[in-house]
Specification:
Elements: E1 9-11, E2 17-18, E3 54-56
Antiparallel strand pairs: 1-2, 1-3
């Protein structure tokens, strides 16, 4: 099982940042949802990139 993190993830295609505190309510991902808990078929809400196109975001 993957380790869960409260860290943000960034889409390499468009730069949109997934923040687990905000989630992605428009896509059915509730606030507080760790990135690792998002279904594998979820896509970036901005450009449609796959979940696998996201990398850990370092501020």
């Amino acid at each position: 099982m993957a380790q869960q993190t409260d860290q943000s993830w960034i889409c390499e295609a468009c730069g949109w940042i997934y923040d687990p505190l905000e989630g992605d309510p428009d896509s059915g991902i509730q606030p507080g949802t760790h990135f690792e808990q998002i279904p594998e078929n979820w896509c970036c809400p901005v450009c449609g990139a796959k979940k696998s196109d996201f990398v850990l975001f370092s501020r």
